[in-house]
Amino acid sequence: MSKALIIGAGGVASVTVHKCVQNYKVFDEICIASRTKSKCDALKEKLDGKGCKISTAQVDADNVDELIALINDFQPDIVINLALPYQDLTIMDACLATKTHYLDTANYEPEDTAKFEYKWQWDYKKRFEEAGITAILGSGFDPGVTGVFSAYAQKHYFDEINYIDILDCNGGDHGYPFATNFNPEINIREVSANGRYWENGEWVETKPMEIKRVYDFDQVGEKDMYLLYHEELESLAQNIKGIKRIRFFMTFGQSYLTHLKCLENVGMTSIEPIMYEGKEIIPLQFLKAVLPDPASLGPRTVGKTNIGCIFQGKKDGKDVTYYVYNVCDHQECYAEVGSQAISYTTGVPAMIGAMLVLNGQWQKPGVFNVEELNPDPFMEALNEWGLPWQEDFNPVLVD
Ligand code: NDP
Saccharopine dehydrogenase-like C-terminal domain spans which residues (predicted)? Predict the structure, then answer.
């Protein structure tokens, strides 16, 4: 019998809330707390009486004292952070002060620079160990399931993994010329940054979208995909034995890239503040305000996502190749929880990670990336809770 405090009430949080309600045997009480309380109330109204007990609260997650007061009042066993990466450290501070377990889906980001580094959160390791509480970092899909897939491959199929390619394909179509599938600010920061991959012990940097490949994805078909830096590369490069190269590719359609280039060229994707009519604004935040809300894409998005990892390495001296991936249908997700597959594929693993902390399987003092923990119960839970995975021992490789 456990209580979870869910912070944030956006696209991802909505899915996690639905899944906690379905999994009421583990989550018998949840509190949904966010900056805009009406969004929490709307979720409660939709789901009240369908599983666990639900309460709501208003909270500014940038404010540690407010968070501590809320945690002391609700007394959760875990805080599931589904606000934005900017709030990770304040929420971790509040968890430390109240000795409450912590889980998130994205690494901390300072608002003024796009860094994608774990160092700030890894710095909490000793303090979480001393407090006897668990922090799970990046329990979404990527990061998240991609790390669990890596740990699973390492545990069951390889003595050493030498190459990992993470392939993130969204074959969905929302019918808009340009929209982002999750928080536009975070999404555009990610794709407009330089690309980077790990090879032979060092980072190799590329221009944004410089490296392109074409891949034929199961149940989606052929798509253009581009090499990006993605935060799980940092932890996987450290945590997977024998790794020589690790890359991340994401698919983008031509319309998305053309719009993005144009927005970049006119300065709309910048995170440098500018003055507008006597007020300081950040162009990217203004752009977010005029783009479709990702949460509104659910009813209009058709098609599938296919996200997974291709591993190459050795077992008992022999070469082994292994591809493990999940295919998720946007409309099926919408029918089940009222969200498209990008939110779904993130929100379900957040619930699963929290469940494993609560039932003890992933509970140990410290700060962990998901690949550092036993992948087996997570892999089982993916099949049970809506993200079944498939294996291919003879996949087409990415050159
Ligand atoms: P949304 O923008 O839809 O939702 C963010 C929510 O956080 C909103 O409800 C927002 O409130 C709330 N929030 C923002 N700032 C504060 C604050 N200071 N205090 C309290 N609440 C706040 O984002 P998503 O749901 O799309 O994404 C959520 C997280 O998931 C992000 O960190 C994102 O990076 C991560 N993510 C991870 C993925 C993965 O696979 N690992 C994939 C996709 C997303 P308000 O409604 O007032 O704006």
Answer: 140-386
